[in-house]
Design a protein that fits this description.
- The chain is α+β, with helices and mostly antiparallel strands.
- It has one domain: Alpha-Beta Complex (Sulfite Oxidase, Chain A, domain 2), CATH 3.90.420.10.
- The chain is built from nine helices and 13 strands.
- Strands 1, 4, 5, 8, 9, 10, 12 and 13 form an eight-stranded mixed beta sheet that branches.
- It starts with 23 loop residues before the first helix and ends in a 14-residue tail after the last helix.
Amino acid sequence: MFIHRRPGWLLPASAVTPEALVTGRRKLLGGALGAAIGGIAGGVPSAQAQWRLFSGPPAKMATLAPLAAKSNGKYAPGRATTPEKAATTYNNYYEFGTDKDVLAPAQALPTEKWTIKLDGMVKTPRTIGYDDLLKQVSLEERIYRHRCVETWAMTVPWIGFPLADLVKLAEPLGSAKYVVFTTVADEKTMPGLHASFYPWPYTEGVTMEEAMNELAFLSVGMYGKTLPPQNGAPIRLTLPWKYGFKSAKSIVKISFTDKRPTTFWQALQDEEYGFWANVNPGVPHPRWSQARERLLGNDEMVATQIWNGYGEQVAAMYANMKGERLFV
């Protein structure tokens, strides 16, 4: 069981930071991780520098195969698609580094012979190969808005299939109430795993109702190709009405339970990163406003929408949840 001991560098919820200084959190985290894996003086090393200290020169760029899928235009995003380069070079993936420049180190992620364990409250626990899974679903392309809790946003053409399809394949018991996602933790290629103050492996969770919602999506590609490692290859969760940290990358286990899980960021700092994490411009993060967001690719600042603009599909799920902290 993970026992939460708050690192000294984590600020209390009362220590509110202006929106313009939102990147301060990442600098604090980066400073702690840099000390943990190398004790480097003179500032926080880049993701590439951290990785070189850990495992030698970066691996060559992963080969991304073309991925065909029918287009589902039901969820038109109402804004231009983010340029592919911007969406694939500005990434949060703490296992590879605490800044956004994790492109080079993430290429070391091994994705061959990928498997996903289905366990917990299911009819028959089993492990399914990634290739076998794709034979049992129909791929489609959906263009979704993505809103990070750090106030940046992008609009991405994801390729994948409804999470509900995977739930049905897993055959959960009727008593299951939550779905828990565990991501890969490969100590040979992920320097961030050696930062002991993080509650690895990365876990996330949703309710069964959320998992069966029409928007919940498992993405295996983007921009017409297979997912690049830095974006969560080979399979990741995509929940467009929630802040981005809920969309777990590189999933290796999906579990069903009747108990609400404590997720990665909750375990680290529950006051700032709750279980629900639904997008709401009217509810600020304890240290910055969530009223506006910066679009990757052109840095335009735009107003954030409640439920990230997907209220028609999701708001009804939360109508009778008075007392729940639905927003970060």
